Amino acid sequence: MEPGTSESGLNRIALEIQYDGTCYNGWQIQNSGKTVQGEIERAIKILIRKQVRLICAGRTDTGVHALGQVAHFDLEEKVSLQKLCIGLNGILERDISIKNAYNVLPDFHARFSAVCREYVYLIYNYYLKSPFVTNRALWINHPLDLDYLRKTAGYLVGEMDFKSFCKKNSASENTVRRIDSIEIEKYNEVIVIRFKGNAFLHNMIRIIVGTICRMFKDKMDPAYIVEIIKSKDRENSGDTAPPCGLYLRSVSYQPPLSSMESAFLEKMPF
Amino acid sequence: MEPGTSESGLNRIALEIQYDGTCYNGWQIQNSGKTVQGEIERAIKILIRKQVRLICAGRTDTGVHALGQVAHFDLEEKVSLQKLCIGLNGILERDISIKNAYNVLPDFHARFSAVCREYVYLIYNYYLKSPFVTNRALWINHPLDLDYLRKTAGYLVGEMDFKSFCKKNSASENTVRRIDSIEIEKYNEVIVIRFKGNAFLHNMIRIIVGTICRMFKDKMDPAYIVEIIKSKDRENSGDTAPPCGLYLRSVSYQPPLSSMESAFLEKMPF
User: Residue A105, exposed/middle/buried by CB under 10 A (0-12, 13-18, 19+)?
Assistant: First the structure.
């Protein structure tokens, strides 16, 4: 069977999407307010006159950005993937852009087929505010110690119950997740925290960032985070760091999207 | 005589300023519209109840940014430089920030004492639009050749008449300027063009960028730019590149500002 075509004759298409989430009420369509999903579904309707339903890999919250969100939808007819990308980019406002489109297998699911998600959190760590990181990073105006952050975050790598780092009253019943790695680097004034894992709970990364920064400020022993984990109580972790610093960087699948027919080659002549 | 205090008892203060110029009608106060100068003068008036007049090193146009603009003003009383910076940053909107303040000699002049100005122009060179460089760089969606740009720009280094690269009906009668260097580098998808020189004509950098990019697209011999220079006619150069890619990066003085009493040390513990 041809990728993208099911027995019922439906073609499944996956989009790779980047957006500045500042002006959106998150990914998912709400009763009111502009959402990323809503804008892209509207653009598809304008372009190919079909109302589709997009299903994404990670539903980002209000103000959270994406560099490589993935979402799939089904169409009855075949479309040119290049024309789809170019056409959608021509309709969408400039804070959303379609990076690529793929013909995927009918059993591909943007959320459930994902094997790894990578998020980055940016902290602008300088005594002075900068006009150029507004809505792009969390500003912390006292110097953070990278070794402290790395050591504290290290206790969170592995499979464990992250209930202490999950938004209260979240829908998730099972709060066990696996973090594969947390890497922390500094580039000039910007600290980049990279999270890789199979899946993350609601607000999990933002609560982790808020917790390790708070623990540093309070001069707590890095190992104390083990007590926070064990307590399984959101009351014991730190504030939820603001959404503007968080980016869904990429989502990986097996087989990878790069092995599918796509609108653009990975390596353009740039 | 103490720096910052003249015989008449006036204290001269220089501010180092960064701003995202997107929402401003340039630096200089106009009859209508929000300007960077206007906002800072208003903030000074709120903070120390004095109407001052700021004189800057380079009057940036609408939409042009600054990482290190310098402007001076005079006050009758002595003020704490730290309190001045912190207070102004507390009043100013987040797209303008005061980086530092200096007590300078009474004969210091932000514009006329400047010995070197550095501007950078950013080009986002990728086939796909990016939400994250909106208002921050010029987007060119065909691949530019760095060697071509370097070779063409090389003809503009030195002292010469830049009349072909000056906005028509500009106030400048003397259009001879000296460019000390033009350096072109690429970092991922972003081409950074750095200009250093004593002073620049109105729109000069934007016209140079527009011209060398146009010449590349039209496959013209790099040496043809010598003919454009010689013609001393704005009709022969290219379009004025948009303001969003241009940043006034720094202004140098002799003696340097770093040798003056300042609000913040150059090396903060970050």
Answer: middle
Per residue in B57-95, pLDDT (tens digit) is 999 999 999 999 999 999 999 999 999 999 999 999 999
Under a CB-based contact definition with an 8 Å cutoff, are residues A60 and A27 in contact?
A: yes
Fold entry, domain B114-248: Alpha-Beta Plaits (3.30.70)
- Please say whether the structural domain A11-112 has been given the CATH code 3.30.70.120: no
Closest Cβ–Cβ partner in B94, B129, B131 for A129: B94
Chain B residues lying within 8 Å of A143, measured CB to CB: 269-270
Asked if B61 is an active-site residue, the reply is yes
How confident is the model over A1-12, as pLDDT tens digits? 556 566 667 899
- % chain B with pLDDT above 70: 95
Nearest to B134 among A94, A127, A129 (CB): A94
Read off the tokens for B71: 């402007």
CA distance B101 to chain A (A): 13
Q: Is the pLDDT of residue B4 over 60?
A: no
What radius of gyration do chain A's Cα atoms show? 20
Task: Count Cβ atoms within 10 A of the Cβ of residue A167 and give its class: 0-12 exposed, 13-18 middle, 19 or more buried.
Answer: middle
For chain B, residues classed under CATH 3.30.70.580 are 11-112
What confidence tens digit (pLDDT) does each residue in B20-40 have? Answer: 999 999 999 998 899 999 999
Mean pLDDT, chain B, integer:
94
**Range list for CATH 3.30.70.660 in chain B:** 114-248
